[in-house]
Structures are given as structure tokens and as C-alpha cells.
Amino acid sequence: MDHVFLHVDMDAFFASVEQHDNPDLQGKPVIVGSPADRRGVVAAASYEARKFGVHSAMPSGEAARRCPEAIFVKPNMKRYQDVSRQILKIFERFTPLVEPLSVDEAFLDVTGSEKLFGSGVEIGQSIRKAVCTETGLTASVGVAPNKFLAKLASDMDKPDGLTLVPFARDAIVEFLAPLPVGRIWGVGGVTQKHLEAIGIRTVGDLQRVSMPQLIRSVGEHSAGHLKLLAYGEDAREIVTEHEEKSISKEHTFPKDVVQRETLRQVLLTLADEVGTRLRQKERYASVVRLKLRWQGFKTITRQRQLRPASCDAFSLRSAALALLKAESIDNPVRLIGFGVSGLCDRPPEQLSLFDDAAEAREKQETLSRSVDALRTKFGGSAIGRVEG
Asked: Residue 312: is its pLDDT beyond 80?
């Protein structure tokens, strides 16, 4: 275990940015997300709001009930992304091996940087200081011999803290043993119930349980994965570039919708937005997916193959509408989403120069890209959608 990893996690990032930019919000319970009187969820909550049990993904109405004094702020994603890029540049001063996980957290491998900047702990402290000085925000850092342990540690002394995990194997096992088993990466609510049913409540319990018993509880694959993590073993390296595996857009209705035509029009808009992004990235999709969330939060997804892989607006709209047509809209719809996956970076092979279908696809893609260019130049409403 000769690697030194950091996991840097910004503290209540969105809310902290809002409090930094508006001094009147400092020290007050701030919730970033949809207003309490509108349908939506909490994107982030300041630590003052978290004291009332408010957390991300909580419905805004529930957050308002728990924290009546909360100040709701509309998300400003451009501002958050700008700050995130500023923070990323700070990380890159210490090591080129940076793996962003989201706008507010990243893994760093600082093994080769210790001769320049000191130990992992010293580098972590330097990063926290630089982030605070240059952005006015605080970050929590975990220092450990692998990614799993570093991420686990960064959450142990929040906010504005640093936690060092032991590097000796026996000390790692001892460090992990008293922690709740839910702290293990990959142990969600369902898995935790299965584990608790056989008496596993702490990581130490997981360390001691026999493999046959664990396999009977969670299956062979999960059992092996959980055993490794229970002993602090994680062989993953830093991944500096992530290939986007899917693109999706969703729309939550202010009021539940039962009119199929309304759903149809919103779905077409989502398909166009996804298609534009797909073409911007010069990718082709081989799978399209429809998502519907009913009143009461029951959610379904339906998907189908695109043969050949496509990126033009016509193919995406047609596939989206076919998926919607196949569903019975018997209950009010709360959310509708459209996405693509199975992305590739090469256009589909043309069967021949005289393949009418291939020629039609090429024309549709060319037209779609022309519409993209017009909308970029003159605005999104410069050209309407022509169906058919």
C-alpha cells in the first residue's frame, strides 16, 4: 500500500457558494432548490438547515416543514461550475492525477507529489487552505492508501476537517471495525437489511462473518466485494478522463399530467435537447430510454435499441414517441424523462453508396446539425420543430 490518495469534498457546496456570495445568508438555514410552494426537491442544504434534518433530494415541502425559517435559493449551476473549475485548478497545482466525481468532490493521487509538497496530510492541509483563501469556501479531506478509504475518511470530520486513515493493514482493519456497515461503499438500504438479518451491523461483524453465510445472504459477487472493502482493500487507480456513457434530460410537472398530448410535446422537447447534446459531443446512441414517474413516486423505465446507432433528431423523436405510445397513461404523471446510452464515436457503417436508408439517415443528420447551428446563432426559439 504505497499509494497516497486524497478525497476532497466541498462542504455543503451549493449552499456555501450562496452564503459566500450573499453575506446576508451567512449563518442562516439556506436551502438550494425548488421553493417550498412548488414541486421539487432540495439540491443542497447549509449546515444550519441540516440541523433540522434537511438533506439533499428531500421534497421542498418537507424541508420547509422541518425548517420553517429556511431561506430557499434558486440553483445557479453556472456559478457553481465556475467555482468548481477554480477549485479543480487548485488540485492540479499539487498533482496531475485528479479524478473529479462531481462539481464538489474529487480523488487525487499525491504519491509522486510528496517530495515536492510534503506528506499526504500536509498536502491536504495546503489544499484546504488554498481553497479557503481563494474561494472563501471550506473543504473536508480524507487521506488514505486507497480511494475507498479516502472517501470514507473525508466524511468523518465535516465540515472543514481532515481525517488520516492508518496505512498499516492491521491498523486499517481496526480503524474500520467499529463503523456501521452502512458506511461500506455499495451497502444500500436493501443490502443493509439483508446483512442485519444475519447479525451484521458493523464492519467488524462483516470482517468476521464466514463467506458461505455471507454468500447465502447477498450472493457470491456482492459477498466478495464486501469482504474486500471490510478489510480496506481497493485496487482502483485514478481515472483522469471519464467517457460519458449516457445523456438524459427530465422534466417535473408543476401539476400531475394525464393528457397524453402534453406528455408527447414535453417528450419531444426533451428528445431534441438530448439530441443536440449528443451531436455536440459527436456521439451516436444505440439505446433510447423513456422514464415516467407517476403520482406517488412509482417510477418505470422503458428502452429500445436504435439500429443503426443514430444521433439525428428524427430517429430520436420517433423512438421516444414509440416508447410513450406503448405505455398506458392510467395514472397522473409527475415526471417524464428521455435518455440515450450505448454511445459510440463513429457513425454507422453505410451499406453502400446506393443504400436509400443510409442516404436518408445522412440527410436527417445533416439537417439536424443545421438546425443546431441556427439555434446556436439565433437562439433556441429561432426555428420550431417540424414533425413527421
From this structure: yes
Same domain, 178 and 226: yes
> What beta strand segments (E) does the chain contain?
5-10, 30-33, 42-45, 71-73, 98-102, 105-109, 139-144, 162-164, 246-257, 285-294, 299-310, 333-341
Give the span between the Cα atoms of 333 and 161, in whole angstroms: 43
What pTM was computed for the model? 0.66
Same domain? For 370 and 319 the reply is yes
Tell me which long-range contacts 188-195 makes (C-beta under 8 A, separation of at least 24): 191/218, 191/222, 194/218
Q: What tens digit of pLDDT does each residue of 30-82 get?
A: 999 988 887 788 999 999 999 999 998 899 999 999 999 999 999 999 999 99
Q: Is residue 151 part of a domain?
A: no
d(CA 7, CA 91): 11
Please count the residues of the chain.
388
Among 143, 249, 230, 134, smallest CA distance to 179 is for 230
Q: Which long-range contacts (CB under 8 A, 24 or more apart) does 126-134 make?
A: 126/94, 127/6, 127/8, 127/90, 127/91, 127/94, 128/160, 128/162, 130/90, 130/93, 131/8, 131/10, 131/87, 131/90, 134/86, 134/90
Per-residue confidence band for 236, with pLDDT thresholds at 50, 70 and 90: confident
Give the pLDDT of residue 242.
58
In the block, which residue shows the cell 492491521? 170
**253 in the same domain as 362:** yes
CATH number for 259: 3.30.1490.100
Computed on alpha carbons and rounded to an integer, the radius of gyration of the chain in Å comes to: 24
Domain of 214: which CATH number? 1.10.150.20
Q: Is the dihedral of CA 81, 95, 4, 120 positive or negative?
A: negative
Selection from 256, 288, 295, 3 nearest residue 146 by Cα: 3
For residue 106, list its beta bridge partners: 8, 100
Residues acting as catalytic residues: 105
Flag whether 236 is in a domain: no
Q: Are 249 and 320 in contact (CB under 8 A)?
A: no
**150 in Cβ contact with 165 (< 8 Å):** yes
User: Distance from CA of residue 169 to its chain's centroid?
Assistant: 31
In this structure, the answer to whether residues 205 and 269 fall within a common structural domain is no
| Cα–chain center distance at 115 | 34
Containing domain of residue 335, as a range? 246-378
Q: Domain for residue 295, yes or no?
A: yes
Would 208 be classed as within a structural domain?
yes
pLDDT at 165 over 60: yes
